[in-house]
Amino acid sequence: MVFTDGPAGRRATIAGTGLDVWEVIATWKDTGEQWSALRESYDWLTDFQLRSTVAYYKIYPEEIDARLAVEERWTPERVASEMPFLSPRRER
Length: 92
What we know:
Helices cover 53% and strands 11% of the residues. With 92 residues, it is mainly alpha-helical. The chain has one domain (21-86). The chain has a two-stranded antiparallel ribbon with strand order 1-2. Helix 1 crosses helix 3, helix 1 packs across helix 4 and helix 3 packs across helix 4 (61-72). The radius of gyration is 16 Å and the shape is globular. The N and C termini lie far apart (48 Å).
């Protein structure tokens, strides 16, 4: 793990990638915390990178769960309402 600073503040990222820990953990949780499904979802990452990500989450679950909660609030309806410029243009 490395820490990256950005507009959202400091966050844990997977070394050598552009992935935040919370992104991989979201997938892991969505797959029922099945290692084989996580491995398949991120087949370009090493076992060490994935195991380090899960280990980080087990040590700091509050940090990652808080970020996951923020992300869950971004529904398609909220995005369309707050950022209409992100919606596809309609044909005239």
